[in-house]
Fold these 3 entries.
Entry 1:
Amino acid sequence: MFKKFLAKTLLIKLALFYAIVVLLMMVFQRNFLYYPFGKILVIPEDFQEVILKTSDEVEVYAWYKKPLEGQKTILYFHGNAGNLAGRTDRMIKFANQYGVLAISYRGYAKSKGSPSQDGFFADANSALGFLNSQQISTKQIILFGESIGSGVATKLASENEFAGLILEAPFTSIESVAKKIYWFLPVSLILRDHFDSAKLAPKINTPVLIIHAKGDKIVPFSEGQKLFELFNSPKKLIALDGDFHIAVSPDFLIKSIKEFMSDKLESY
């Protein structure tokens, strides 16, 4: 009898502990998904600071370098950690060949608000609106999304046709990645921000370039492969050796983008 009582008590305690863990993840999940740390102290030469106003009245900070005549413009969406300052080398390299607009998501350095999927989508639309106000059409814009930014770029590409869609270390959805990490949690039931690129990919007509390390330890390469297979538009997958996440050199990125944009995409 006593052993049964102990066993029952232990099960109840384990159940309560599990329930508390699930509750904490429900409440604080965005703290695990978004890491807006660091400050922006300087901006790259030839860039200007821009403040965008979103549809829900949030002020979003961005860097903008106007394209020269005949140049396309890269609309850049960074990953979930850090801020634009950690992408300075990329911005400088991109600006040598393209116009650039890189936004700091809501809740990140110098932007107002708090991070969320729908908030990021609103930020992206405000960025597109800004470029349109500069007489830059979607056909002159190359979307670039790294990691969680791939979900933002894919969403935008599902609503308009662009010159190109470049995805670095993308996933099919946050849910798919989270289930691999938090296999012990009911992810499908508690997840708030899905970034479901798999659902959007078949709708996209824009040419797609995916760059992903085969040994990526944060977003598995299999995620990028699966997403690649879902696109029906002209596409190319560059599989890199290594176990890094988004540590591709700016020179390699520029080379890959230029080759992809200049090639006859029908061959893909």
Entry 2:
Amino acid sequence: MTVTEIAILPLISGSVDPDFKETLKRGLDIQNDWHIANFPHLPATLKGRASHCLQQVEDPGKIMITAEWESLEAHWKWIRSPENAEVMAALSPYVPSSPSDMVLLHLDGGTFGEEPVASPGELIPLLDSPVIIVERFFVSATKKEEFLGNLNVSKAAIDKVAAPYLVRGS
């Protein structure tokens, strides 16, 4: 099953500088080359894999990296690869080395994937929006259905306010 990776990384310097951006770009290119070699049947571009790097508005010292993976196992294969070790070593001057300082989430399905180009009157794809908000809710298993019901009731109002931008969530 497709999963969406969301990694939130704090930056040691507290801001994004040109050297970090270049190092991160090289890292994304290395990851993409690895992905093409290991999963040639899947999209071969960063955009096709919804692989993006976004900077938080409320805390510019944090970045969010997204990517879609064929499965959770496919992502862990990347994490354990020598290529990922190389990327992480290159990023080490910029991000803390402790996993406890980072957030890594996997969402079921494709969240940021490429949608058809919007035409007048259609919703604008999520990653073409000027701002993306990611919320995480912790709900006990016994209240999950009730929570989802309430969220779905609210979603219509959120969709209306956000239009023409796409809203995703479940």
Entry 3:
Amino acid sequence: MGTAAGIILWKTSVKAHALFGIDGNESIQKPEDVKWEDVRKDIVTLIESNSDYDDGSYGPLLVRLAWHQCGTYCQYYKDGGSDGATMRFKPECSDDANNGLDIARSLMEGIRKKHPEASYTDLWTYAGGVAIEEMGGPEISWRPGRTDSKSGDTYPPVGRLPDGARGEDHIRAVFYRLGFGDEEIVALIGGGHALGRCHNERSGFHGPWTFAPTTFSNEFFRLLLEEKWNGNPQFEDSTGELVMLPTDIALIQTPDFKKFVVKFAKDEAYFFQVFSKAWTELMELGTNIK
């Protein structure tokens, strides 16, 4: 599983990214001591450790944790984003958008205890990238250097994460606030929904988006175009086994989005390229990483 090379730590060393605490954040105590290859091995073991969880893997859950950690960024107010790991505290940990992520945070606590020199937010974002690679996705570029907040006081306003029950205007508002264009929007939604499944008790929706919810691929886009989707409030295929949310259907109802759905459905390599770049940018929003 995964790529041979693993996550690229770019050209800079871990030591080069030691940051000092600013704006209420705590610095990483000993960043030079973080052995990221050892961290990776522990994450891979974690991903494969429980066949009883959804579809036999924690991978999609770790991707969602990383996404939600970074998806609160606002380019206009310059707050939220990857730094802080404020989901450890209220009110963010109890935000409805983060339902179920207490499982992921608890799992990552075990990794943190083994590698206390690393920040929570570095570990969470790194785990998301490792999970993508291990589930057959593209090689992910990633750099350490994020800092943990001492409390939840710096938590950004509620409502910044995508709501699957909404449509085109909501999608644009969320992703334009993050700084992404239409092609990146489609890649990030499709990449996120290539994995895992919805849970009724968490989001009000239920079911997987694809037939292989622990494999990262362009299947989401192919199914979106090829299947007939019916239903309300969630859309289901003819078998009733797969689900698409209103935000997903908006990708084929909006011409400026649909052209990228078509392109990604035809060319998985290109989808991987666009997604990998957008994911790396998402993971660094709101940080001082240079």
